[in-house]
Structure formats: structure tokens, C-alpha cells
Amino acid sequence: MVRTPSYDKNGLKKGTWTREEDKKLMDYIATHGCSNWRQLPKHAGLSRCGKSCRLRWINYLRPNVRRGNFTQEEDKLILELHQSHGNRWSTIAKHLPGRTDNEIKNRWHSYLKSSSTNPKLHPIVANNLKTSKHKDDKTNEEVNINSLLDNATNDILESTPIVTPPLPSPSTISSLAPGINSGKSFGLEEGACSKQPIGERSGDFWTEPFLHDFEENVDCSTDDLLMPFHELGIQYPPSPIDEEKSFWFYGMHINK
DNA sequence: AAGTGCCTCAACCGCGGACGA
DNA sequence: GTCGTCCGCGGTTGAGGCACT
């Protein structure tokens, strides 16, 4: 499932990303953040366009990107959200921690789309169609969707294998990754690095549930989650919160 | 074992919105 | 108000994997 590498007329590389390119991109973002995608490849030493770098980061390299099979809860949520939002994949993705819009879009086209027209293919779909039968009234529909979102999101969050480290203090960050403390922090917002200082972040959608998971599911599969980083030879200093159990991204150390 | 077709998913393309000059 | 630039989004494609014949 890879595209043959090629070069466009401007000499920019297209196609599959190599491990070397991944490492360069991650190395650069770890140090400088990703405030300007257009300039990033030039400064990072990549022969790629900014859009390609952004896409690679968002869909593959970004921390907390959840890879692997979709759970029933996720499928259920996607179906409900698609009923209310249509093909607004980025909107839908905001309700699925760790999933990218691209992944959800692929999931829809490859599986759920056909299942929605033929519920026999997917029991979750059949149930959804049953429960949402009388959604003519818009108010009822909104209520149903909202309650379903609450339930489904809780299900996902309770079963998610993802852990996100507690947010470090700015001083910790500056000591571990020079440059990050100058407003170029790693955020967990959709698709990009937030410019909001890390210390000011608290209690948002991305951190709260994972903090809970971090406490409850310390033995989850961080190896899987960090696979791209391990493969690239990136190591993680222990979290100041719990050195034994956690992994650490915000102040990650990259071997050179 | 070889051929074929479908499935999956990473990546590209083009458009539109936001924003600043 | 217009233009240019940048970014994000949704649609589409390319190619490997895999099941089936």
C-alpha cells in the first residue's frame, strides 16, 4: 500500500515516506514545532511540500494517533455522527480520540458505507438503525445523538489503549527540549501543534480522559502506540510524574 | 501454483476559507 | 475591496495484501 516515490517538476518528492524522512520531520517538529508548514520542509531538510509533511504528521507521526482495528463503539459513533454531520470527517474525528479524519473516511468508504445500506453486514449498524428509527423530530434527534455521543465516547475512552502523559511544566519542557518553551509546544489539538503554552492547558477533551486512562491502564500497549518512534530510534525520558509506568513525548529526546 | 478481483489505507489533488498586505 | 498566501478539508487514487477461483 505504498506509492512509488517520484519527483515533481519542482524537484519535490512524492510518494511513500521513508524512515529517514520520518525521522527528519519528527526531529524538526520536536525542536521547532510546526507553526509554518510551508517553510518546514525547507528548514527540516526535506524535499517535500508542506502539505505532504503536514499530512504525514497528522495521519501517522503525531503522538496519540491510534492505529489498528476500529472498535464496535467507534463504528457505532461514526455511524451516528455521519447521520448528523454527513461527510464532515474532521468534525467526526474530533469525537474519536486518536483517530484521524483520513482514517475515519477510509473506514467509512471501506466498510461502514456498505454496511449502512446492508445492515446484515454489520450488527452495530442494524442496532443503530433500530434505535434511530423515529428521528423525525429534530429535537429528539439531537437529544439522541448527544446521549449516544456521551455513551459511545465514554465507551471508547474506557476501552482505549492510548495513554497520554500528564502535561509537563514549562520548566521541565525547556530542560528537555530547547526551543519548545518559546511558545512552540506540542499540543494534542486536531492535526497540529498548538501555540498555547503547555502550562495553560488543562481539562480539555484530549487530556482529561487520557489522564484517567493513564492512572487506570498503565500496562496498556504503549509499544504499539510508540512503534513509529521506536523504529526511528527515538527514546523517551521518563515522565516526572511516574518514571516506571509512563511514556513521554512532550520532552522527547531524539538520538542523533 | 497462478491468475484475478476486491479490500485497505497511505498519500495526493484541488478547492475553499481565513487572514494579512 | 482585491489579491496573494497559507492551511485545512474532503474526494480520489495507487498499489500492496489477501481471499477466492
TrEMBL record:
InterPro entries: Homeodomain-like_sf, Myb_dom, Myb_TF_plants, SANT/Myb
Residues in Myb-like domain copies: 9-61, 62-112
Places the protein is found: Nucleus
Pfam families: Myb_DNA-binding
Molecular function per GO: DNA binding
An example Gene Ontology CC term for this record: nucleus
Stretches assigned to the HTH myb-type domain: 9-61, 62-116
Main subcellular location of this protein, as a coarse class: nucleus
Top-level taxon of the source organism: Eukaryota
Keyword tags: DNA-binding, Nucleus, Repeat
PANTHER family xref list: MYB FAMILY TRANSCRIPTION FACTOR, MYB-RELATED PROTEIN MYB4-LIKE
Identification of the protein by name: Uncharacterized protein
Organism encoding this protein: Ambrosia artemisiifolia
